[in-house]
């Protein structure tokens, strides 16, 4: 699958730390992870930390799929509001899903600190804007529902929003719990930590050959055989191409993003908070360590790379127009622009764990707007499953929920 097109920001800012080996002979190990993006790296690091023998394989290399196209707004907010998720899955499950996503921010912070990963991780706030008056109708109820489970959230009026963030919108939900980072550096940092603990990373295009309860066999394009007890699928948005039954569980879409040239002003908006809004398709923005504005959105319901790429020019103009309306006093010039493929689920939650058709495969499908947050959850759930431990979060993200 063609996952992205354009000039990407993150790979231009750093040098890769992990270079995969060539796969020259058969491999036998406890765990094989297909995918060397942020999900695969997170899993490799978590497994290495508990002494599990693991191998990572990816036909592209490290962080060369959809990961470098991420804008890396790290939030606990799920694409579906807590109120709406409660209607879909019941109050208890919805609350637990939101709490798990919220707690994942601290878990990611701890993991980055534990391994001293330089990835530009910074704590910041999140401002969820109402584009129209009617969009703010449920904000008070939503903020109250989050506070009821210990998540700080408050509603800002138009006046408060203008005073604090110099943004003119009808209202916003403000959450102090959010983060931003460089996903390319994060992925390489996690894999570097895993490699230091014995994980091997190979550049190889592998295909599942025989998948059973206790033994999984893969074959590379060159005929090399790989066997393991546990196979982890961290292939991101390409997964349904190999596991066709999963196609009905998600919708593949296209999204667009740009990064400006570094600004001369100290900050494009106060507090350098993450900004996103209620419109569909929605608009989101953040700032970077080198003082760029990073904008994304204008999603399209297409997985066709030709149709996706043909829209890049028009979509970038629309994103610039939306930013100019949001921050009329700030002029930005795009230096990087790209289009990418992503996936959504009906309820905004990821799919994590084993499917009954493939009992020896553990899937880490962090679909939705919170892919990196969901990768943290997947790493913990799948690690515990491999160790034979119960994880109370596992049921929230199972395939048959």
What does this structure look like?
This protein has helices spanning 38-49, 82-89, 91-114, 139-147, 158-165, 183-196, 239-242, 305-310, 312-326, 371-387, and strands at 4-7, 21-22, 27-34, 54-58, 73-75, 122-129, 154-157, 171-180, 200-203, 206-211, 216-220, 225-233, 251-260, 274-277, 283-287, 293-300, 334-344, 351-355, 358-365. The protein has 401 residues and is α/β, with parallel strands linked by helices. Strands 1, 5, 6, 7, 8, 13, 14, 15, 16 and 17 form a ten-stranded mixed sheet that branches. Strands 2, 3, 4, 9, 10, 11, 12, 18 and 19 form a nine-stranded mixed sheet that branches. Helix 1 packs parallel to helix 6 (183-196), helix 1 (38-49) runs parallel beside helix 10 (371-387) and helix 3 packs across helix 10 (371-387). The radius of gyration is 21 Å and the shape is globular. The model has no long low-confidence stretch (mean pLDDT 96).
Could you write a compact summary of the structure shown?
This protein has helices at residues 38-49, 82-89, 91-114, 139-147, 158-165, 183-196, 239-242, 305-310, 312-326, 371-387; strands spanning 4-7, 21-22, 27-34, 54-58, 73-75, 122-129, 154-157, 171-180, 200-203, 206-211, 216-220, 225-233, 251-260, 274-277, 283-287, 293-300, 334-344, 351-355, 358-365. With 401 residues, the protein is α/β, with parallel strands linked by helices.
């Amino acid at each position: 699958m063609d996952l992205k097109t354009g000039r990407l920001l993150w790979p231009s800012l750093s040098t890769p730390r992990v270079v995969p080996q060539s796969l020259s002979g058969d491999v036998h190990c406890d765990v094989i992870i297909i995918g060397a993006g942020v999900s695969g790296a997170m899993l490799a690091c978590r497994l290495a930390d508990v002494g599990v023998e693991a191998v990572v394989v990816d036909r592209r290399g490290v962080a060369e799929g959809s990961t470098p196209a991420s804008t890396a707004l790290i939030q606990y907010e799920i694409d579906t509001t807590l109120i709406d998720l409660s209607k879909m899955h019941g109050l208890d499950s919805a609350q637990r899903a939101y709490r798990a996503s919220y707690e994942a921010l601290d878990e990611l912070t701890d993991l980055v600190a534990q391994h001293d990963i330089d990835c530009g991780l910074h704590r910041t706030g999140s401002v969820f804007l109402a584009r129209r008056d009617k969009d703010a109708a449920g904000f008070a109820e939503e903020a109250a529902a989050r506070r009821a489970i210990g998540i700080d959230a408050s509603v800002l009026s138009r006046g408060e929003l203008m005073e604090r963030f110099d943004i003119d919108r009808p209202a916003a939900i403000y959450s102090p719990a959010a983060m931003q980072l460089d996903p390319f550096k994060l992925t390489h940092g996690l894999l570097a930590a895993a490699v230091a603990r014995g994980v091997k990373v190979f550049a190889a295009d592998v295909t599942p050959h025989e998948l059973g309860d206790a033994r999984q066999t893969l074959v590379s394009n060159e005929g090399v055989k790989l066997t393991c007890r546990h196979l982890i699928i961290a292939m991101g948005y390409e997964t349904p191409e190999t596991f066709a039954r999963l196609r009905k569980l998600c919708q593949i879409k296209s999204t667009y993003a740009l990064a400006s040239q570094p600004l001369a002003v100290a900050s494009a908006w106060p507090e350098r908070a993450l900004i996103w809004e209620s419109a569909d398709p929605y608009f989101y923005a953040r700032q970077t360590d080198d003082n760029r504005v990073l904008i994304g959105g204008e999603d399209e319901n297409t997985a066709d790379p030709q149709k996706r790429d043909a829209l890049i020019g028009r979509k970038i103009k629309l994103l610039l127009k939306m930013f100019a309306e949001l921050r009329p006093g700030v002029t930005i010039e795009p230096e990087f622009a790209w289009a990418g493929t992503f996936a959504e689920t009906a309820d905004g939650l990821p799919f994590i764990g084993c499917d009954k058709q493939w009992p020896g495969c553990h899937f880490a499908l962090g679909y939705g707007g919170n892919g990196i947050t969901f990768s943290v959850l997947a790493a913990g759930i799948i690690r515990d499953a491999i160790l034979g431990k119960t994880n109370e979060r596992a049921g929230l993200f199972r395939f048959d929920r």
